Amino acid sequence: MSMILYIPDDAAALSVGANEIANRFASQAEARGLDLTIIRNGSRGMLWLEPLVELETELGRLAFGPVTLDQVDSLLDAMQTSKDHPLSLGLTEDIPYFKNQERLTFARVGLIDPLDLNAYQASGGLAGLKKALDMNAQDICSEVTESGLRGRGGAGFPAGIKWKTVLDQQAEQKYICANADEGDSGTFADRMLMEGDPFTLIEGMIIAGIATGATKGFAYIRSEYPHAIDKMKRAIAVLEAANWLGDNIQGSGKAFTLIVRKGAGAYICGEESSMLNSIEGKRGTVRSKPPIPAIVGLFGKPTIVNNVLTLASVPIILAKGADFYKDYGLGRSTGTQPFQLAGNIKQGGLVEKAFGVTIRELIEEFGGGTATGRPFRTAQLGGPLGAYVSEDMLDLPMDYESLAQNKAMLGHGGITVFDDSVDMADMARFAFEFCQVESCGKCTPCRIGAIRGRETVEKILRGENVASNIALVEDLCEIMTDGSLCAMGGLTPMPVLSALRLFPQDFDRTPVNPTAEAAE
Amino acid sequence: MIAPIPSSGAVSDHSSPLDSATEARARAICADHNNDPANLLEMLHDMQDEFGYIPSALQNVLADILNLGKAEVHGVISFYHDFRSSPAGKVVVKLCRAEACQSMGANGLIERILDRHNMSDFGTSSSGVTIEPVYCLGNCALAPAAMIDEQLLGRVSETSLDASIATHMQGGQS
Fold it and tell me: Which domain, by its residues, includes A356?
């Protein structure tokens, strides 16, 4: 009897013991004389069920999880005898969390061995690139523009227009940079994609190269992601050996080479111009714009900087056409977004849905509410620079425009949930502190504003002149928003002001000196 | 030779002159990266992997090889949180204190872990455990998260962290 098991080697699965589980299965199989093949796939995205083990059957893949080391033996017994087991979750594809998603960008993540090029092609991989090799650059840019694909890093700029700008530049060298400096708390989609389906990102980058005349690419990956860095480097080697990367891709005459660059722990390097400086070996300070990177980018050359998810959405757009992609979504937010449910949430993980799904659907239906079981208080959308939302905002649809109209933002699609034990004044203090730690220091509103902001919120926390200090914080936020060079200083006010606006009671600290306060 | 800039609070012997073996290795690492200034971050990562930190005397060597000002080299090293100017302990524990981990009690956990190692703030304990803050490890659905050396840990507790730290102190991986 032979058996095939899928056990993820995604970093999140490893963080709760997937390797130990895989080793135990292997040694048990050997002891039992069982012909067992273990395929290390990416994660299916149901992270609360990790380590999730899947058994291949004629009916499809059966899921079991979360598997603990002491249950491996009984699980293997059940698998060998086709008996039920307490950890059984049925067919993976039928688990509502998974079934109710619309997976386009993440279609293959968790499905295959991420470095198996045959499995990649068998599941639709390289179809987009093959099509692109037969198209002219202009048409590829038009297809991407037509799809409505917007930058998934947070800014939401139309990808096709950025590409066209680079295509229109005359230069002997152009570059494609994948921004994989995914530093926002509450986000992990880039990491999961690079670990679970790196070929898709690379395919998107090669297509971007063909579309713009860029022959060299960099994937800038944060150093906090050693597993993703390793997987990307190995994926590049596989594609080089198969001549999908190199000086003459499949004899087409097109060239594209790709280099992985490891960040060094600076959050600001997720800002595109700061990232370019970092790839050039410099301090990751922000550059003034204009000129935009599409005109003067890496080493002064025209450069596309796109988020991992933007680039990884391109292959399916090329393969299935702009109309197919455009059918998903809401208004000007077309396609799908891999949302990430994080923090104090019962069923945390990755949910790819068309734009327009409500915050409530994500947190309650997919997420199952808080992990602690305490009442929901707030969620921060779009990372540390994103707004906090209150309970009565949960029916807002998740798309760029609806959130912006409500003084929130989509960012990179992360949703960090908090229960009622959270102190929002302390979160406002933390937003300034984070900006202080991570500011590149180039512009004054961010560099100094963050420190003064933290100090002022600390005064509020101590109950010193609360009303006037709140006014001071609001004034400071206006200066940071209007006067900062980039989103770091410019958006730090977003979590602060949303906390102040939606949760004023948390800032209502007992005055230290009530008489002085009243006299103001 | 210009005297090395003493970094604030660093132990003096970390800014002492380089021995010739270290300098030779540093030059070899630079050569591996084509002595190209654009590869400075890669070189620094390799040097830190090999030496455990970036000895300040190496700044002169780098400036010389890459034809950069020493201030530029110093500027790059000091900009990035990853690069150390003095050696770390035997085990490096990174505890996430970003929002997602805070929502699952990371702040309290950090306090208790520091307390267990008789530390009032991040740094290196007398037993050689370096505890550092980190802002997001990308494991936000399994918060609180930590990283010991390069091993990512999810849903950590005091007990599980203690056990992992002990294993790493003994040289094991997990």
Answer: 329-419
Please indicate, yes or no, whether residues A157 and A198 belong to a single structural domain of this protein. yes
Q: Is the pLDDT of residue B174 over 60?
A: no
- Tell me the shortest Cα–Cα distance from B161 to chain A, in angstroms: 12
Q: Tens digit of pLDDT for each residue in B120-152?
A: 999 999 999 999 999 999 999 999 999 999 999
CB neighbours of A430 closer than 8 A, spacing ≥ 6?
A: B99, B102
**Cβ proximity of A39 and A6 under 8 Å:** yes
Q: Would residue A205 count as lying in a domain? A: yes
- Closest among B142, B88, B166 to A11, alpha carbons compared: B142
Q: Do residue B154 and residue A437 have CB atoms under 8 angstroms apart?
A: no
Q: Is residue A196 within 8 Å of residue A79, measured between CB atoms?
A: no
Domain containing residue A284: CATH number = 3.40.50.11540
User: Considering chain A, what percentage of its residues have pLDDT values greater than 70?
Assistant: 98
B77 vs A: CB within 8 A: no
- The answer to whether A317 and A128 are in contact (CB under 8 A) is yes
For residue B8, pLDDT beyond 80: no
Q: Residue A206 belongs to what H/E stretch? A: helix A198-212
Which residues, including other chains, have CB under 8 Å from residue A495's CB and lie 6 or more apart? Answer: A380, A384, A385, A386, A387, A388, A427, A428, A431
User: Cα-flanking dihedrals φ and ψ of residue A340, to 5°?
Assistant: -125, 120
- Enumerate helices (H) and strands (E) in chain A, giving the number of each: 22, 16
Which of A192, A224, A418, A436 best tests the B interface by mutation, with the highest count of B CBs <10 A?
A224
Predicted complex ipTM: 0.95
Chosen domain end from A362, A387, A419: A419
**Assigned token pair, A483:** 């006067």
Q: Using CA atoms, how far apart are residues A375 and A155, in angstroms rounded to an integer?
A: 32
Number of C-alpha atoms within 13 angstroms, CB side, residue B102? Answer: 25
Q: Confidence class of residue A515 from pLDDT cuts 50, 70 and 90?
A: low
In this structure, is residue A264 part of a structural domain? Answer: yes
- Contact with chain A for residue B153, Cβ under 8 A: yes
Of A259 and B8, more confident: A259
Task: Indicate whether A371 and A305 sit together in one domain.
Answer: no
Chain-chain contact of A380 with B138 (C-beta, under 8 angstroms):
no
